[in-house]
Amino acid sequence: MQADLKPLEFDSIRRLLERLTHTPYGADAARALEPAPTLAVARDMQRAVTAARTRIDAGRMPLMGQLPDIRAALRQASSPGARLSTQAMHNIQVVMRAAGQLAGALDETPDIYPGSLDELKPPQALVELLDKSLVGAGSLREDASTELEEAFAERSKLRAEVEQVVLGRMGRDDIRDCLDDHRKVQWNSERAVIVIRGTEADKVKGVRRGSAMGGRDQIVEPMEAVPLNNRLDTLNGRINAEQQRVLRELTAGIAEHMDALNGMLDALTWVDLAFAAGQLSHHMNAHAPTLVEGPRVRLAEAYHPLLLIQFADGSGPRPVPLSIHLDGNDVLLLVTGPNTGGKTVALKTLGLITVMAWCGLHVPAEQDCEIGSYARVIVDVGDHQSLFHHLSTFAGHVEVLKRILDEADGETLVLLDELGTGTDPEEGAALAMAVLDELLSRKVQGIVNTHLSPLKDYAARHPGIRNASMQFDHQRLAPTYRLIIGEPGVSLGLTIAQKNGLPEALVERARGHLAAIIGEGR
């Protein structure tokens, strides 16, 4: 399905899901979420969300924790001769460990992933390889190779030997009192040195290696320690070279398991997104609609998802649900009624719920709702002058209509707000009727909102299109926001103008002018 997501504010749904994810992989998937390309993929995701929701409702939400992003490291490891850092390898260990634990926790929830949950399990050979090579938070073990083990053992002996030499020099009477601690050898760039007060530094024959304590002390390498320190430097060079070789070898080992690692990340991404969607479903008390073949919609007591979330969060009034049925017989719904009555909300509710369903998400509606398969959802809502700043409002409206007529067919859901506006009402109504003729001939489904009264008569005369209206409480002079199918609405512009503060006398004069206009029209 292709859909106009921006006018439906689908980005807000994406952001909600992103905040509910636990991994950078799920967060990226939430930010990029789009309607599925096929009904089968949408059903797979819906099954996963339903499985996640079931666990959440039962208090069995698995703990994933915050995981590092290893994708760049895996890409680097794929390059010949690459060498990952020990920190990057440790991050891979962390993600593999978390994925393995998650796979075990979800063992009884196979619907959470359309493939095998074994794909979530890390390659055991790689787990063992890194476990025996790394220690702590990303350090290479001293016994990661035979040569390393031997070199580190030799270094320990050599360090002890050079320390004894330096301690011997530090313990002599000529400098003992010039040292802060004559029993502790200091190390500078892996060389054993003496830190002595600057005024006494000349007492130690050796190599100056710098200063300390803001220049108060001097760092001196005693001459008798230089040969041993040089041997230590050479040995450290060997150790470093061997460590780099081992890291390249481990990186090559990671590359050998790249397919399994990428499959593990794919499964982890899917599961994280499914649980985020399950939490969103729980928050909205939503249900899984039935996804069916063919273009049709049957919604019962459906809420606008974003308005419902605002209400649940205490930041908005309780929205009013609506019920809509579109199929091969009733393809278009013509909604009329006053401004601020909820026409645009009704249109966006249908569009957003359809898109969410095709993303596999649950929707805030009754359980027996159906969402059919549409190839595209085209939305025309908003200020055309702002969308096409170089054109007039009407010219912008025409640009959108051209696109609809170019693309719409029997597998298209069209959501048209204020059809025929921006020009003379009679010409606008005539143009709107011609557009509706074309949409009906193609069996395009959707909702069309308008203020133009002639379109109500058009809908009454043409099979396939039904009148509908947004209910208005005449006693309270306020909209109820309830969609009424089968009844055309009235704009009530003068009533609303009076309610919003225009002088009563002025409104009464307007009523007189309106009566005269209607009389002339007859």
UniProtKB/TrEMBL annotation:
Keywords (A to Z) from UniProt: ATP-binding, DNA-binding, Nucleotide-binding
Alphabetical list of Gene3D superfamilies matching this protein: P-loop containing nucleotide triphosphate hydrolases
Signal peptide location: none
Single Gene Ontology BP annotation: negative regulation of DNA recombination
Entry annotated with the keyword DNA-binding: yes
GO molecular-function terms, A-Z: ATP binding; ATP hydrolysis activity; ATP-dependent DNA damage sensor activity; endonuclease activity; mismatched DNA binding
Domain DNA mismatch repair proteins mutS family: 330-515
UniProt keyword Zinc-finger, yes or no: no
Membrane-spanning intervals of the chain: none
DNA mismatch repair protein MutS core domain span: 8-310
Pfam families the UniProt entry points to: MutS_V (PF00488)
Name of this protein: DNA mismatch repair protein MutS domain protein
Species per Swiss-Prot/TrEMBL record: Thioalkalivibrio sulfidiphilus (strain HL-EbGR7)
